[in-house]
Amino acid sequence: MKPSVLALARRAFLAALVLPAAALAQAPAATLTVSAAASLTDVLKELAPAFEASHPGTTLRYNFAASGVLIQQIAQGAPVDVFISADTETVDRGIAQKLLDPGSRRDIAANQLALIVPSGATLPVRGLADLARPEVRRVAMGKPATTPAGRYARQALEAGQLWASVEGKVVPADSVRQALDYVARGEADAGFVFRTDAAPHADKVRIVGIVDGHTPVRYPAALVSDGRQKALAGDFVAYLLSPAAQGVLARHGFAKP
Amino acid sequence: MAGVPLSPTARHAICSVPRDVADDTTVRREPDKETDTMWQTLQGIDWHPVRLSLQVAAIATAVALVAGLALGWLVARTRLPGRGVLEALCMLPMVLPPTVLGYGILVLMGRQSALGAWLRAHFDYTIIFHWHGAVLASAVVALPLVLKSASAAFAGVDRSLEAAARTLRQSRWSVFLRVTLPLAWPGILAGTLLAFARAMGEFGASLMVAGSIPNQTQTLSMAIYDAVQAGQDDIALVLVILTSALSTAVLLASNRLFTARSS
Questions:
Q1: pLDDT exceeds 70 at position B101
Q2: For chain B, which residues make up each domain, given as ranges?
Q3: Three-state DSSP class for A229?
Q4: Which residues of chain A neighbour B128 with C-beta distances below 8 Å?
Q5: Residue B204 CB neighbours (<10 A)
Q6: ∠A86-A90-A94 over CA atoms, to 5°?
Q7: Contact B211 A172 (CB under 8 A)
Q8: B211 with A185: Cβ contact below 8 A
Q9: Residue A215 neighbours by CB distance under 10 Å
Q10: Which residues of A fall below an 8 Å CB-CB distance to B?
Q11: Could you tell me whether strands A190-194 and A58-65 are parallel, antiparallel, or unpaired per DSSP bridges?
């Protein structure tokens, strides 16, 4: 019996080597890789089928994370075609580093920053100033170094002279969606996310208010300088600006750019 | 001093050279630019994560050692029904993704869990976003290494020596402390050092449970992750070299103990 088991194992091993290669060989002609801000996760997934249908043979591949993480990946040579950030600053930096094509830059949407609490919260958090109260122990927000939502939140707290008293309570999240999760689980007493992140989770988090005192939230899209699918990438950005796509963005709560 | 622009050379002297040496300008060599930027990098690094990592790993290893000794004994020396299943369950953290572990701890200890809610209500305590959470996660991943080496070491002890001690009217506990443990010790210690190295390297589960809060719960591995994400490659490099050196030292010590036992 033993040799046949060995032969079987060898066959399985060879198959494991060959199968991925076969899968690669069957891949469609064009794959467009889009690195986009985490807050765009749901809306871009919804927009994908229509774009793929209008470009037969094209597959959209999404990579969602904090904008600062995405630009860092692009700087290190990640094969990305389109970059969409949740702030203008990260795109400015990408253009300054010649990672992004300045001529291709278009704002595709706008958003607002929201202060949220867990839906069953008993703490009296009604505004930014309440975050300085001692009962509020943990405040979730994206890491200001890499996450636009975290940077907007810090700007707002600094503008309200509150950063010094809130900084020690901050639980830094990898992306705005992780900050949302911390609040939704009730592990953080309050948090900062975009309005569009909180809206679909009304059962778990409650929006206390819209936060201002920060630079306006804009989503600029730009083509990556080293991208291999420039024409297709341009089509994708144009599609995001089309009335149909803008309608879907509006339905998800995003404002006109 | 205020308002006087400092040349890079002067700044270097103030930063890096002790005052008595700096005063003696004749012996001071010109600092080159590379050491200057390196020094600035070192100054910009927050060393708290290094201390916290050592602290978390030490406590986690102590917890894993106590639990691992007891479980290793159960597995190697008793006929307890279901001990095989128990061992397999304790070994799981070695093969499961850290995310599973992190999720498990969040579900069992989080605010919405019965235990988490009880601890919060009675002691105003939560392990989530607390460095104790990192200790728990690290102890769970370190346990299999202690357990495996302890059960192997206990199984390797010559039973006739224990029997001889029993004929000399030693109690079971006394035999364990005076005969079994000293004979099994090198193997257990080697496994414990391995467990310490593993606890130092814990990242995923700790991040999910304790978060990466600067000066509170941010361990060395999290500080590296944050530095890479933010593009601070120079800081990441220094921390990577540091953690690699620490872990290499621990592994060398562990290897030496393993070879000492087998020879």
A1: yes
A2: 48-262
A3: coil
A4: 187
A5: 17
A6: 130
A7: yes
A8: no
A9: 13
A10: 66, 68-69, 72, 75, 138, 143, 145-146, 170-172, 174, 182, 185-188
A11: unpaired
Amino acid making up residue B240:
V
Task: With H, G, I as helix, E, B as strand and everything else as coil, classify residue A172.
Answer: strand
Closest CA to A75 of A53, A54, A98, A57: A98
Record: contact B229-A186, CB cut-off 8 A? no
What would the CATH number be for the domain defined by A9-110+217-251? 3.40.190.10
Interchain proximity B214–A69, CB inside 8 Å: no
In CATH terms, the fold of domain A111-211 is D-Maltodextrin-Binding Protein; domain 2 (3.40.190)
Q: List, in sequence order, every residue forming a beta bridge with A255; answer none if it has no partner.
A: A110
Residue linked to tokens 């390196």:
B38
Q: How many CA atoms lie within 13 A of B155 on its CB side?
A: 12
**Token pair of A166, please?**
């809130």
Q: What angle do CA A80, A77, B218 make, to 5 degrees?
A: 100
Structure tokens at B204: 């995923």
pLDDT for the residue B27? 46
Burial class, A128, CB count within 10 angstroms (exposed 0-12 / middle 13-18 / buried 19+): buried
Strands of the sheet with A82-84, listed across from one edge:
A58-65, A30-37, A82-84, A217-223, A106-111
Q: Which residue has the tokens 């530095």?
A: B227
Segments of chain B assigned E as strands: none
Q: Copy the structure tokens of residue B235.
A: 């800081």
CATH 3.40.190.10 in chain A: give the residue spans: 9-110+217-251, 111-211
Rg (CA), chain A: 22
**Domain B48-262: CATH superfamily, name plus number:** MetI-like (1.10.3720.10)
Hunting for tokens 């601890």 — which residue is that? B119
Per-residue confidence (pLDDT) for residue A82, from 0 to 100:
97
This model of the complex carries an ipTM of 0.74
- Reported as a pLDDT band with limits 50, 70 and 90, residue B255 is confident
B16 Rama class: left (phi>0) / alpha (psi -120 to 50) / beta: alpha
pLDDT in tens, A213-233: 999 999 999 999 999 999 999
pLDDT at B2 over 90: no
CB–CB of B83/B74 below 8 Å? yes
Instruction: Report d(CA A196, CA A40) in Å as an integer.
Output: 9
Q: At A203, is the secondary structure helix, strand, or coil?
A: coil
Contact A257, A109 (CB under 8 A): yes
**Residue among A105, A190, A92 nearest A148 (CA):** A92
Contacts of B211 in chain A (CB under 8 A): 171-172, 182
B107 touches chain A (CB under 8 A): no
**Option in A72, A146, A187 nearest B111 (CB):** A187
**Global model pTM greater than 0.90:** no
